[in-house]
Amino acid sequence: MEETNFNNFETKQKLPNATAVIILGVLSIITCCCYGVLGILLGGVGLYLAKKDTAVYNTNPSAYTNFGNIKTGKILCIIGIVLSVLYLIYMIWMISYFGMEALQDPELMQEKMRELMGQ
């Protein structure tokens, strides 16, 4: 949708990737628990598109209307990347501390957790 300013007869456009950046940001938050990798990838792509649209916006700020969506999407992507990195670090710690076998066997995991708690 284009917005027309009748005083200056200018047509304002929407930034091309604003909606995609918001969607990628939300998906990066949702998928942060997929071992962290998918959330990092989606957030990274979202930040790349946000940087690209920010450069387009900075060339002519008066020609675009939805720069706020880029800011929102960028924040969502950063949150998604941070959560994904934290979850990835947590998973690496779990695998290194308990081992892959314990993560796949619930009984062995309970035994290892009891050892950790000192029971």
- On the 0 to 100 scale, the average pLDDT is 89
Helix content: over 70%
- Which class best fits the helix and strand makeup? mainly alpha
Distance between the first and last residues' Cα: 64 Å
Order of helices and strands: EEHHHHH
Strand order across the largest sheet: 1-2
According to DSSP, the number of beta strands is 2
C-alpha geometry? rod-shaped
What are the low-pLDDT stretches, counting only 5+ consecutive residues below 50?
A: none
Strand content: 5-15%
Q: What's the total helix number?
A: 5
Radius of gyration: 22 Å
Largest sheet: 2 strands, antiparallel
Task: Give the oligomeric state.
Answer: single chain
Walk me through this protein's architecture.
By secondary structure, this protein is mainly α. The chain is built from five helices and two strands; from the N terminus they run ββααααα. The protein has helices at 18-30, 37-59, 67-98, 100-104, 106-117, and strands spanning 3-5, 10-12. Helix 2 (37-59) runs antiparallel to helix 3 (67-98). The longest helix has 32 residues, at 67-98. It starts with a strand and ends with a helix.
SSE map:
Layout: E1 3-5, E2 10-12, H1 18-30, H2 37-59, H3 67-98, H4 100-104, H5 106-117
Antiparallel strand pairs: 1-2
Descriptors:
119 residues; mainly alpha; two-stranded antiparallel ribbon; 5 helices; 2 strands; 71% helix; rod-shaped
Quick gist of this model?
The chain is built from 5 helices and 2 strands; from the N terminus they run ββααααα. With 119 residues, it is mainly alpha-helical.
